[in-house]
Specification:
By secondary structure, the chain is of the alpha/beta class. The chain is built from 8 helices and 12 strands.
Length: 271
């Protein structure tokens, strides 16, 4: 016992202080919110879109009227719900018009807010309404459902309950039974074999309840989108209240989204 206490004293406080203090530095290989500068796109170039393995990038032309003629400029959008945050588009672009930043803030309340463009200011996740915040703000119990994920998202969801992150300090807890839960955390594309299980789990939670889709697979099907043995994410089976993109999302991205949902963080938009 004495050795344990001495070891613990040497280790000190190991839980991150976020959100009361600045977030920890992200690792060098981390890829967060993309930055798109369509003004650098040459006419007709589709290098980034052709390189994307999940067809997350859309390129169109918009007219730019001039005195002498109608010219066209590129309009680039990236669907973060489909994006797996690989570097293929960034590496393929000859003009460096697209690049991933270290901005971990990615969670949104609507699917449409996950579409990032060169001129868009996207709304980060807004808090639940007053009634739900009064119910869940100090005690939020979540049932985690793996609906065909590869365990990458599960690892980053589960690590939040460890001492380094300690989501219990915010009143958030993972529970074993949907009967004890206030909502669901769904990971994976919702395979055919898990569709009924997910639906029954959702139905077993008493109203009011919330659903959080974590990762590209749970949002859009990810790399499995269109496959006949899965359902392109959770929204086709249960109503989703928050989307947290990534493949997998960083634990800080997930924590940031949960705290925004509970009204603990309220800064506005991301550029």
């Amino acid at each position: 016992m004495l050795k344990t206490l001495l070891t613990r004293a040497r280790q000190g406080h190991r839980t991150i202080k976020y959100p009361d203090a600045a977030p920890p530095a992200m690792p060098a290989h981390f890829r967060g919110a993309p930055r798109i500068d369509a003004s650098r796109c040459p006419d007709g170039c589709r290098e980034c879109a052709d390189a994307c393995p999940t067809n997350a990038i859309t390129i169109s032309q918009r007219p730019t009227d001039s005195v002498l003629s109608t010219q066209y400029s590129a309009l680039v959008s990236l669907d973060l719900g489909r994006c797996i945050f690989c570097p293929e588009c960034e590496n393929a672009c000859p003009e460096e018009a697209i690049a991933f930043s270290d901005d971990y803030r990615l969670a949104t309340r609507t699917r449409g807010d996950l579409v990032a463009g060169s001129a868009a200011h996207l709304e980060l996740a807004a808090a639940l309404d007053d009634k739900l915040r009064r119910l869940f703000g100090r005690s939020l119990k979540l049932r985690v459902v793996s609906a065909g994920d590869c365990n990458a998202c599960a690892a980053d969801v589960n690590v939040l309950s460890t001492i380094g992150w300690d989501i219990g300090r915010f009143g958030i807890q993972y529970v074993a039974s949907p009967r004890h839960a206030d909502g669901l955390v769904v990971m994976g594309p919702v395979t055919e074999n898990m569709r009924l299980a997910l639906k029954k789990t959702w139905e077993a939670i008493s109203d009011p309840k919330i659903v959080i889709a974590v990762g590209a697979c749970a949002i859009s099907g990810g790399i499995y989108a269109g496959h006949p043995e899965q359902h392109d994410g959770a929204a086709g089976t249960v109503p989703v209240d928050m989307f947290i993109p990534g493949c997998p999302p960083h634990p800080l991205t997930i924590l940031d989204g949960l705290l925004r949902l509970l009204g603990r963080i309220e800064d506005g938009t991301r550029a």
